[in-house]
Each structure stands twice: as structure tokens, then as C-alpha cells.
Design a protein that fits this description.
Immunoglobulin-like, seven-stranded antiparallel sheet, alpha+beta, five-stranded mixed sheet, globular
Length: about 575
Amino acid sequence: MNYPSPRSRAASTVLSVCFFVLLALAPVFGNQAGARDFGNRAAQVWKTQEFVLANSDWSGNPFDLVATVTFTHAKEVRTTEMFYVGNDTWKFRFTGTRTGVWKFSTSSSDADLDGHVGSITVEPRANVDIKGFLTHVGNKYAVMEEDIDHLEGYVYQVFMNQQDYEQQYNHSSRILGNASRVNLIDDYWNNTQDNGFDIYFFGVFYSWFRMGALSIGDFSSADDVALDQPDPALFDTLEFAIKYAHQRGGRAHIWAWGDNDRKQTPNHLGDGFRGKRHRRLIRYIAARLGPLPGWSMNFGFDTIEMPNAEADGAWWADELNRTMGWPHILTSRGWDDRSFGAHSYAGFGGSPYDLETTGKGPSGYREIRQDMAAHKDKPSIYEERHTYNRWRCWPGAVPDPDRLSETGCRRLIWWETMAGGMGGFFGHFSERFNQYGPFRPGGPCGYHPESLKRAFRTHREFWKHGRLILGMSPDNRRVSGATGYCLVAADRKHLVFFVEDADSVTVDLSDLPGSRPVFAVDAKAEYEEIDVGHLKAGIHTIRLNRTSDWALAVGEFGEGTSWRAGRSTEERR
């Protein structure tokens, strides 16, 4: 079998001699003559470091060669694996989750990858807009701020542009279709931002093995030799997308696989779901992506079609978690299982999933709040894609086809946040997709209109800078005179209201300590904070400039609203 960068034995011998001559200049440790001391490297929290080792003496499949690296800090230990990138080269990565000195050492049955040591001195992050790994506190998403112990609430809303950048079909605009399209990531990110989101979506499917492949049908057979190794070119592009978003304060949401009936799941590999090919791929994903902040991953969609959907999905998550070394939220749509980092809801209704909304749901705020309340151990996400006007484009008749109209989309994203922080998924399908989700040229399912993009941008801007406090809970009894919702922090100093189709609202601030600033934002307009003044404890009627959907923020948000080691500063007062 041929593997990346095959060498003749003679050429390999020459390179080996050169390699060991170079290593002889480094300090020697114990009996490992080739062991190297990488010395000390300076780094910053959340800034990934990469190390490179040459190894020309390997035999067999290089993706099966196991080498681990253990990073030790006074307060924690993290272990990851090396990964092969071609040309007799292995790499390993590290991301500091707290400041201080981390020492590391490598271990492998392969002498060239064994016994190397070094240290990393991690300093505080230089840019406060760069966040760490996604985690949770109870049923709320949380992101690591200055280090692993400092958490802030996070609004998890995903955007998908399946017309231009992310498709389930072969087309020249699919970013993961060809390595030459990496330049489109900048366009996709800008498009994501313009549509009001900080998280963009990628579906990989069988591109793990060969960039551009969508299903097992893109290979000669289920035992095609191409399936015996991951495709480094795919990982180069996917990593670039993850890093690109993270450096700009955003994230990537990845679907590892797709639909079983379309042969887009690892069930169709020649040696099966839990076979050697899939295990090899999982190890490679964990080694290359595990140390990178800024991504989350779902197993796939319509998983009910798989013969062992929940058990196999849970096994997949367990295997990744066991080998990644760093925390990432993994989901599998529809299944309530301890192995998954979030409760991911299917959204069609009528299927035997554990987690499912009403048909073509959720039906409204009440259902969202019920789903949040039902699962307090970890966060939730509606991972059905709530694309603009989706149900008006559906092949068959559905109840309430206008549910995802402009008004429906705008209010859905606010309901999800006001229910306590439900994750969501927005965007649009493509005319090139298939019969189960097209957007027809000239039809109602096209791109977001400018007014909806503006509303989504306003939602994003409102919740920035810590306004979704981890200790917040719904308390809609505080709203009268309009259809509205309220989130209140445990300290009663921070409240958020959202009201619909109103030019005034009465809010109950009877237990407000002291005098607090209040501002209003028109949810339909470009983001602008309208100063309402300072209010003291009492019941107040707030007059707004015009009839619209409005958000109100009461209190000074930001400083003093983060959590440390699982407890909020407000709770510790």
C-alpha cells in the first residue's frame, strides 16, 4: 500500500543519517540517543503552539503510529497525541488554559518520537476579545475568558450559508470541496458577520478521507485504499477556518457526518462504524483539532436512520473526549446521553428521538423555556436548521408555513436567548440542495433580506460583553402592558427585557438595589442604545419612541458578572 510521502529505502537511510546528526547536537536524556530538549517557549493563554519532529524510519501506515505528549502544570495535566502531516513529519500542539510554566514530555514505541522534553511559559492573553474553549455552567453555554477558571455566558447561535460556501453537493463554491478554495473562508466569515453571527457552519462528511467527498459513493468501494488515511489537505482548510474565526472572536460549528440513507455516515465504511478506519480518523481529529479553541462538533443529522444511532454516537463522543486533551462540546442530534456535551434537539416531530421539538418547531417561547427547564445539567441547542422561510419552501404542506418568516426568525432568536440561552441555527439553503430543502430561484427561501440581517446584527451586538449572565433566570411576571419576557440575575442588579410590537412597557423593578442605568434597543433597527435614564426600585412604565420589538437592559454589564470556578461573583457577595 502507498502512503503519503513514500521513500525508497536508500533515500530514507540518507535522511535518517542527516536527522540523527542534527539531533546529536541536542542534549541526550537517558538511553534515548535521539531525545531532544525543545527548551522553553513563551506563549499566551488561548494561543496554540505547534511543535515539529522528523521521523524517516517509520514503517506501515504512518497514521497508525501512536506518540503521546503530556503537558504538566502545577494545577492540571493534559495529554494529546502527535499527528502525521506527510514528508516524514509529525506535529503536536498545545494551548495554555492558565498562566505559568507547563512542562512536557513525549512517549512512543517509535524511538524518533520518544523522550523529547521541553517547557512552555504561558502569559496572559494579549487581546481580551480572544476567548478560550466553550464549556457550560448548568444549562448555559459558557466561554473561558482570561483562563479556564473565569467563565462568561455565551450566546450560541450558528449561521449557515448553503448557497455560497457550505453545501451538500458538488459545486465550485463549496469551501471543503477543494484545497484551492481556502480563500473563500474570508468571504464566508464576512458574510457570517454581515448576517449577524459569530459562528459559521461546516459539514465534512466523507471529505475527512478525500477533500470534496460527500458519501461513500464517491469512492470505488467501501474498502477503497483512500479510506485508510485522513486527508491532510482537508484538515489544513478546516483548521484555517477554525483559527480564522477564533482570532476574530468567533467560532466554527462542525458536522462530522451527514445522513445515513445518503451513505454519509461511517456505518458504510468497509470495516464498520467502530472499525479501524473510523478509529484511526477519530484519533487524528483529536490530535489535530483537540488543542484548538474555537469549535464544537455534532455527529450528524437524521441519525435515527442508523441501526445503533444513540450507542454509536455516544461511543464516537467518548472516543474523541478520551483523546482530545482539551474540552469541546460534542452533540448528536436527537439523543439524550451523558456522553454528549449538550442536548441537541431534532425538529421535525413524530420521530422516536429522545429530544425533539413539536413538528417543524419549536412552536414558540413557551416550548423553548420548557426544553431549557427540562435539562439543567448541560446546555441545549435546536440543531435543526431554522433557515429563512424554510417551511414555505417545503415540498409538502406544513402547519404554520410562515413560522420562519422574517418576523418569525427575528423573534425565534430572541426567544431562545430570553429563555435562558438555548442554542440555535439560522441561515439559508440552496437551490442546488435537493428535494428536501431547496431554495427555489425567485422563491421565498432566498437570502436574508437586509432588514433581517440588520435585526440579527442587533441581536448579536446587544448580547456582547457579558449581558447573558450565567446566573440569570427567566421571570416574565416582571413585564406587563405588552407581550414580553425578562431575564434577571441573582443579584437583581442586572435585568434584560424583550417586548414585542410595543411602544411602551411596564417593568417591575421593585427589588432593584440602588439606582441603575437603563437603555433600550430597537430590535428591528441597526444597533443603537437609547438612554432611558436611571431607575430606582419600583414599577415603571417606559415610553419608547415607536412601535417595534424592543430590548431593554437594566444595570451595568461586564465587570463583576463573570464566574470563577463554577460560581458567579454576584453569588459570592
